[in-house]
Amino acid sequence: MKKLLPSHFVQSVIGANEAVFVWGSRHMLHALVPERRLGHVRAALRQRKLTATLLQHDVSQYCVEQANSRRTKEFGWSAYYDVDDIYAYLRNMSARYPAWAAPVVGGRSYEGRDILGLRVRKPGAGAANKPAIFIESGIHAEEWITSATITYFINELLTSNDPNMTALRDNFDWHIFPLVNPDGYHYSMNNDIMWRKTRSKSPNGCFGADPNRNWDYKWDLALNASSDPCDNRYTGSRPFSEVETRTLASYIAAVANLQAYLAFHSNAQMLLVPYSDSKEHVDNYDDLIQVGKVTLEYGRRVNGAKYDGVGTVAEMLYPASGGSMDWVRHTLRTPLVYTWELRGWALPCWPAARIPEQGDEVTQMIHGLTVEARKLGYLK
């Protein structure tokens, strides 16, 4: 569709009591609709002189196939792996490269899992003063491609002999967490492919809160969010009600010399900067835009994929509140804060066989970000 339509329009077409998932940008809208309502939706769109293309008849079956893609004995990037496999990979990499990488625990989950990550930095003189970069992915459970992409980046960071990669490894103090919502991710892979939230239990019997609507920044605005515990975008009962967000925030706040915070989502194909609740611009907005544009150009050179942006969430998508990116910027005053929406417009489940495409793009984008940021005086 040439013009973005609000989600409530789609809901009105499908029916008020029907479940619907809608995602999009300023240029395109995608929706998952019940099969029994497909004819009705098509007729309603025709009546409004709008056209739509059926991209996948059975999304759930397609995503199940991706979840069950054949895993190799050794961790790789032609399949999606569950929590235990991802964590085993992180521990294995720290064992293989003990001089550079160490496992770190960024918090705990409701079901008792660690939020496990890797800290990567070159030892030696000056190690303690290197600019720190924090990477977060997998906060929304069903966005499997984000965790796969960040493990791919970890592999490049630790194993590549490319001078650009060794420079990343040598110059920065990395805190990388591929999976900050492990309970939800595990549930999504094994029970409900569209599961987005945590797995905490509300008094009314519903489960989970949206962990990217639960941070203590403009939480009470509940923008693009809900106070209903059964809703997919439930804010939680209070800011940091979820142990995952609460403990992760404590870890982030303790990171010395934190200069950049990079968050990864899917799948709107854009690069975003704070803030999300309004079109207000932060004081170094122009620098963020310049660095962001260069970042996207580095990625475009890999596969020719063009991302939208750079802009605030309110400008590029919709007003939102309670997100990690905004909390980090507002509370910690971290100068470089970005959120990626990775590719995947056609389907919510990026094909497992094409994980390296996004891995290569993101690796080059992170490299480009550091190059341009340093030109402007950041990350020194």
Automatic annotation (TrEMBL):
Residues 79-373 form the Peptidase M14 domain. Belongs to the peptidase M14 family. InterPro entries: CARBOXYPEPT_ZN_1, Peptidase_M14. The active site is at 341 (proton donor/acceptor). It comes from the Eukaryota. It holds the Pfam family Peptidase_M14. It comes from Plutella xylostella (Diamondback moth). Keywords: Metal-binding, Zinc. The lineage of its organism: Eukaryota, Metazoa, Ecdysozoa, Arthropoda, Hexapoda. This is Peptidase M14 domain-containing protein. Its cofactor is Zn(2+). The keyword Protease does not apply.
